[in-house]
Amino acid sequence: MSKNFSFGLRGKLVVIVVTGIVIGFTIIGVFRLNQAKQKIILEMNRSGNERVTLIAEAFSNLIIGYDYSNMESLSERIAKQDDVLQIDVRNKAGKIMVSRISDDYTPSSSKDLLFKSVIQFGGEPAGSVELKISLKRLETTIHETYTNIILEQVFFAIFLSILIFVVTSRVIVKPIGHFRDLMNTILNNPSESSHQKLVIKNKDEIGDLALIFNSMNNQVHEYQQRLKDKYNLADSALVATNEQLKIRTADLEKALRLVEQLAITDSLTNLPNRRHFDDYLATTFSRAVRFKEPLCMILLDIDHFKQINDTHGHAAGDYVLKELGKLFKSRIRETDVCARLGGDEFAILLYRAKIDDAMNWSQLLLRIIREHAFTEAGITLTVTLSIGIAQITADNHSIEALYNATDNALYEAKRRGRNQAVIYPFE
Ligand SMILES: Nc1nc2c(ncn2[C@@H]2O[C@H](COP(=O)(O)OP(=O)(O)OP(=O)(O)O)[C@@H](O)[C@H]2O)c(=O)[nH]1
Which residues form the HAMP domain (predicted)? Predict the structure, then answer.
């Protein structure tokens, strides 16, 4: 880029300068040539007139004395001069007395100048002299002058072109090149642009350009800085918002987990509710069927719970429900589940437990409850349970069938007088 730029500007300068100088010098040259030609012609006329006057004076005595011999010899000598083509001496009446023609005079081809002078003697006209001078010398002189002028013009044109080229190169192209290099350096190092200024000492348009560039560069830097500050501000705000969002998300997740937990938990006893129990039963049932493993379901219902409520109040009833929940939970394995189905009814799933194990577990539970002291607000409450037990069998091959079988067993326990456990099928 830089090479093209330098070449372009210098090239244009050379073309402009040389064209200007050639035109200028051509005009000056033509003018000088015309002047020189006029001067030479004037000089030729002046010297021709002088010569013919002197010749007339030389012939003055000779013409009065009719000295033909000397007139001829003088004419001969004059005719032999380089530029003389012809000399004619005439008497007072105009009759030619002597005439000499140069050896190389050919009137058809030669261009000539004619000079005349009156021959005077004692202040009176005694005859006349005509002198033809060749223009050849004049043409040679003009040609030489032309050549000299053209050579001078060409020499000065070349000299002036070089001078102007060098001066303009130094005064215009060099500062512009410097200007361009500095701009390039600044543009290629944008991060340092604030510290870099164009230092140009020219007090001209280039200097003005540098000042404008510096001011623009400053404005750009300030704008960048403002943008950076705004970006940083926005960034920190974003970070803070992000943090808040994280906290909010964590809170929401926590709340969601709680809601989920609440949705499947009985709020009074903190045991799983019916919904959770049904889901768990569905999973466990299919697993037990698939792997042919024993699964027992137990339904537990408080005997005459309505009476407890009615006699001792709802709070006493709640206490009994909570206390039973704790007892059930403490008596089952980690892998088993105990849920409150609603009201005073509970359910327990004993996975990989046979019907006898379930019966033994129920008997033990009945005994524990009988021995447990249910005391609320200083009053001891009598709490007993009825329990129905069923397991997966060929008959109970669906969840609904298992449910019904267990429910039937519970109903049978109630029917038989409560406070006991009954296995389905019963007799
Ligand atoms: N305190 C309290 N009582 C409840 C709650 N849910 C249901 N009950 C009461 O539990 C009682 C259940 O009574 P029933 O299902 O009629 O049966 P029961 O009195 O236990 O009689 P049997 O089951 O036949 O022995 C009703 O009086 C309900 O109002 C509860 O969350 N807290």
Answer: 170-225
Regarding whether 93 and 68 lie in a shared domain, the answer is: yes
Which positions of the chain have pLDDT values less than 70?
1-7, 107-110, 190-196
Judge if the beta carbon of residue 318 lies within 6 A of ligand 1: yes
* Rounded Cα–Cα distance for residues 337 and 98 (Å): 168
DSSP states of 190-205 as a string?
GGGTTT--------SH
Number of domains making up the chain: 3
- Of 268, 271, 273, 305, the one to substitute when testing ligand 1's pocket (max ligand atoms within 8 A of C-beta) is 305
Residue 172 covered by a domain: no
**In a shared domain, residues 244 and 319:** no
**Structural domain range at position 142:** 2-157
SS3 115: strand
For residues 142 and 112, membership in a common domain is answered with yes
Are 199 and 213 a contacting pair, CB within 8 Å?
no
* Same domain (yes/no): 227, 371: no
Q: Which of 135, 157, 179 is the last residue of a domain?
A: 157
Summarised one tens digit per residue, pLDDT across range 220-268 is: 788 888 999 999 999 999 999 999 999 999 999 999 999 998 999 999 9
pLDDT tens digit string along 318-362? Answer: 999 999 999 999 999 998 999 999 999 999 999 999 999 999 999
Compute the half-sphere exposure of residue 174: CA atoms within 13 Å on the CB side of its CA. Answer: 9
Shared-domain flag, residues 304 and 364: yes
**Is the CB of 411 within 6 Å of ligand 1?**
no
pLDDT number for residue 155: 86
What separation in Å is there between the alpha carbon of 77 and the centre of ligand 1? 174
